[in-house]
């Protein structure tokens, strides 16, 4: 069975109740921002390439109130992160520290233009934490959207600038040198659409994905291999070094011919990494066109090619993700168009495009086979959803 996805309203209600209990008043400001799933275009964003994400129905929510004490007090209602779940920090001396989860909030506060007042807040998220569907960006973007409403903050900057500030928060306070995709889609996602994002120009093109006969199935492997921490920066560095050797500003500009020409000076591993990036950027462009024409077979084929390339050339998959894709593709004649790992890799989620009619059957098949290997997967049927908003609240009106 697919997981029931909690509504933003119910998350907000829980956060508001927790806020009242802890702080003894009603919060006056709130915001929410979604996680994302990348349909195709993996490890291309930091190479100036294309990515093709959509915003998820799972969101991070933050509710709170500005204060005059100079000290921020914040609680997360999510387990599955480091303790303690309640912490305090001074607004005029923002530095990364412990607990780690709070660094995403602090990091954004540190980036805000203008003067951020201190605040009390409670956060809660329905995005699986550490599952490769960007709970981190959703928390950053929700925090930005929350703080943007407070007096003293200059909210008059462009959306792109806001996105870049959230990305910088992740770089500087979480130590994760991520590309721009996650924050971009969390901020700007549109219901019923995926977003083809050109990470070089930072321009996005919305592509409708609202055909009721197909659904996006996100499957959480519920495994996360520890090496993730160092592998991502390593890949990023390899790509930068390869671009230098190829004499291009970024791998976006690399071609198959240029790669072949440099084969003798590149070590085998770097060669494979570049081959993935070049082919993945091309696939992503093609996949967006395929989706635009509702050519799901082509889209699905490109998804599988993407997975294979991530597994073999980029080497960021793992046994569990490969199994989930394999089990999904065993249902090719039962409505599955394609499946691939999504996100950074080494665990986390797969994404599968499947007919709405057969999705339950497909879930059952994957679930049974994955369980036989000793693991439990979680399934989410995900309509493309809206980006960040304050829509559920009126500014400065207590709930
Ligand atoms: P992903 O972005 O794929 O979910 P990351 O490792 O980048 O994985 O981010 C997960 C981390 O983000 C968590 O371990 C936690 O520190 C933080 N985080 C995200 N959402 C929340 C939340 N609602 N409460 C506390 N921490 C959160
Ligand atoms: Mg993340």
TrEMBL record:
Is the keyword Cytoplasm assigned to this protein? no
Signal peptide positions are none
Molecular function terms from GO: ATP binding; galactokinase activity; metal ion binding
The record places domain GHMP kinase N-terminal at: 103-189
Q: What is this protein called?
A: Galactokinase
Q: Name one GO cellular component term.
A: cytosol
Source organism superkingdom: Eukaryota
Under the heading Gene3D superfamilies, the entry gives:
3.30.230.10, GHMP kinase, C-terminal domain (3.30.70.890)
**UniProt similarity note:** Belongs to the GHMP kinase family. GalK subfamily.
Stretches assigned to the GHMP kinase C-terminal domain:
290-371
Q: Which PROSITE patterns match?
A: GALACTOKINASE
Pfam families to which the protein is assigned, alphabetical:
GalKase_gal_bdg, GHMP_kinases_C, GHMP_kinases_N
Q: Which organism is it from?
A: Elysia crispata (lettuce slug)
- What are the BP-aspect GO terms? galactose metabolic process
**UniProt keyword terms in alphabetical order:** ATP-binding, Carbohydrate metabolism, Kinase, Magnesium, Metal-binding, Nucleotide-binding, Transferase
């Amino acid at each position: 069975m697919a997981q029931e996805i909690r509504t933003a309203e119910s998350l907000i209600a829980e956060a508001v109740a927790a806020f009242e209990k802890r702080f003894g008043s009603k919060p006056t400001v709130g915001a929410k921002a979604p996680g994302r799933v990348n349909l195709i275009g993996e490890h291309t964003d930091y190479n100036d390439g294309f990515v093709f994400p959509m915003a998820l129905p799972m969101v991070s929510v933050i509710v709170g109130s500005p204060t005059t004490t100079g000290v921020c007090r914040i609680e997360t209602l999510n387990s599955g992160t480091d303790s303690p779940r309640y912490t305090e920090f001074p607004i005029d001396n923002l530095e990364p520290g412990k607990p780690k989860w709070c660094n995403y909030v602090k990091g954004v506060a540190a980036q805000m233009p203008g003067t951020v007042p201190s605040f009390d807040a409670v956060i809660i998220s329905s995005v699986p934490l550490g599952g490769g569907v960007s709970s981190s960006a959703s928390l950053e973007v929700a925090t930005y959207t929350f703080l943007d409403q407070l007096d003293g903050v200059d909210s008059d900057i462009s959306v792109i600038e806001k996105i870049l500030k959230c990305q910088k928060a992740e770089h500087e306070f979480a130590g994760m040198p991520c590309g721009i995709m996650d924050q971009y889609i969390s901020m700007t996602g549109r219901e019923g659409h995926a977003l083809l994002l050109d990470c070089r120009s930072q321009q996005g093109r919305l592509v409708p994905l609202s055909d009721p006969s197909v659904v996006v199935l996100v499957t959480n492997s519920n495994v996360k291999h520890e090496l993730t921490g160092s592998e991502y920066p390593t890949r990023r560095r390899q790509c930068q070094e390869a671009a230098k050797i190829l004499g291009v500003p970024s791998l976006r500009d690399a071609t198959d011919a240029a790669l072949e020409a440099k084969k003798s000076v590149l070590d085998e591993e770097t060669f494979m990494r570049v081959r993935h990036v070049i082919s993945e950027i091309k696939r992503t462009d093609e996949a967006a066109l395929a989706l635009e024409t509702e050519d799901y077979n082509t889209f699905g084929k490109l998804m599988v090619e993407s997975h294979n390339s991530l597994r073999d050339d980029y080497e960021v998959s793992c046994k569990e993700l490969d199994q989930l894709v394999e089990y999904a593709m065993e249902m090719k004649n039962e409505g599955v168009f394609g499946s691939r790992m999504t996100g950074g890799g080494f665990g986390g989620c797969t994404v599968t495009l499947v007919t709405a009619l057969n999705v339950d059957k497909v879930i059952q098949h994957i679930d049974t086979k994955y369980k036989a290997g000793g693991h439990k997967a979680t399934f989410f049927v995900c309509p493309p959803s809206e980006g960040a908003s304050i829509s559920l609240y009126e500014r400065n009106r207590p709930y």
